[in-house]
Amino acid sequence: MALRIILLLTSLVAGVTCQFAPGCSFVGDQCMYHVELGHQGQCDKRAVSSGDGQCCADLEAKMSSLTGDVDELKSQVSTLMTDLLSSKSNLSATQDNLSEAERRTQQLLETLAQREAELNQTQHELARVLNNAGGEIRSLRSKVGQLTSDLNTCKGTLGLATNTTVLPVSGILGSDVKMDLCTFESRADTNDTMCGYTRGSSSIGWTRGHGKISSSTGPQEDHTFGAPAGHYMYLDARQIAPLHTSSSHSYTISMTSPEYPAAMGGYCIRFWYNMYGSDIRSFNVYAKIASAGSGYPIFSMTGAQNQMWHMAEVDLDSEYTSKPFQLRFDATSDAYRSSYSSTSLLHTSGDIAFDDVYVYNTSCKNIPLCPPNGITRDVNGHTTCYTFHVQPATWYEAADACRHEGATTALVAVTSQDEQDFLVNTIKADQALTTAGQYGFYTAGADQRSEKTFDWTDTGTPYTSTYSNWKTGQPNDVGSDQDCLLLEYPDLDFQWGDVDCDSRHPFICETSYPTPKASAATASPMVGK
């Protein structure tokens, strides 16, 4: 607006100050004005105006317009000042609101700090209460578990279906029945790998081995885990061969168990053995009673078998168990070398192994077919039962826990869609299992032997199946240490994933009953020395 006024004034001044020779004179009672308007060359005409005062009308009009513009400018300036004052007032109000917001924020922060302190105090008190209550809870759980165990022992003996368990393995047998299991693995309480077993006095005896010793003889893996980390006892024919040069000479090694107390109700003995190899000779087990020499033969097997682990079952009646006794395991080899000066070893494919020795102070018929709290499933006349465990464990702890349920119990091997569906439906039907399932369930699947080649390990002899249910992108072996198969994804009906075997998860055990004849040999006491 100011620019507009300046231009207008400049225009007026320019109009007035154009080159001219001002002057006036009276002629015939008239005032003569001599005015030149415009630019050079345009002010050379004279104009005569009357003296009635209208000669400056144009100038007055422009001045009037200028006055109007000035008034308009004043009005706009006034409006601007009003707006400025209003903005200043609004800014002041905003600053007040901001100050109030900052004050309230500070109050909230102080309140939050106070609540956090109260929460921490509450957590400490809760931890103390839970710690104090833990002993009572464990005591009550033990009592309930014992009562449930006694009931389910009866059910299992009769072959009746029992209920799902959501508790750790405990009380599988009645309170008066004891089970001793030796897996030849390290025990957490004593770090004893031999379970009190002693080798014979000879320089060469039973050897604690693991994994596949030879492609021509012996087991592929141990029976407990079915994995390279597991152990078993075996006769090593390659150690015996250098001792002599005669093919007609045999060599026997011995191992003796701890002493078991007398039991008038008899004993049930179950163990797993492997006799794979073209040079296999004999494997014998004796019940050694007091000073009865080498003992009474209760089991004998001669000659080669396939590479599977086989189960032996022996019922000892009171004739053998009325006094304390021991078990003695003997294996024989006729391996030799061609001559004392030769390094050529012969008949060395004769390794004999045994593992997972179960000793019950009751007869075999009193041991439940299905572990307590198991869920049974029958397919084409073949019955299996499953126990679900929500207490997290490593894969090795879970495998060991399943072996402690019974001689034919192992981590579950899911070999069909029907079995997968059965497990999923069982989990979904139980709230406790559904909750535990958020962490997945361990199975017998593992690839410790060959990365991304997952085997089922439940038999102790790893095998594969055509069925699989991996989630897309699995197995992926993140961190290069994921070797165990988990029913991992509950939102996808527990599709499979691979995890670190040392991570802790719930697990499922599977028991086959009656004992599969294809993988078991039953022996009765034999007349002996």
Automatic annotation (TrEMBL):
SMART domains according to UniProt: CLECT, MAM
Residues in coiled coil: 56-132
Domain C-type lectin: 381-510
Taxonomic lineage from the root: Eukaryota, Metazoa, Spiralia, Lophotrochozoa, Mollusca
Entry keyword annotation includes Disulfide bond: yes
Pfam families: Lectin_C, MAM
Gene3D superfamilies: 1.10.287.1490, 2.60.120.200, Mannose-Binding Protein A, subunit A (3.10.100.10)
SUPFAM superfamilies to which the protein is assigned, alphabetical: C-type lectin-like (SSF56436), Concanavalin A-like lectins/glucanases (SSF49899), Tropomyosin (SSF57997)
Annotated signal sequence range: 1-18
Keywords: Coiled coil, Disulfide bond, Signal
Domain MAM: 180-366
Name of the protein: C-type lectin
InterPro entries cross-referenced by the UniProt entry: C-type_lectin-like (IPR001304), C-type_lectin-like/link_sf (IPR016186), C-type_lectin_CS (IPR018378), ConA-like_dom_sf (IPR013320), CTDL_fold (IPR016187), MAM_dom (IPR000998), MAM_domain-containing (IPR051560)
Presence of keyword Lyase: no
Species this protein is from: Batillaria attramentaria
Domain of life, source organism: Eukaryota
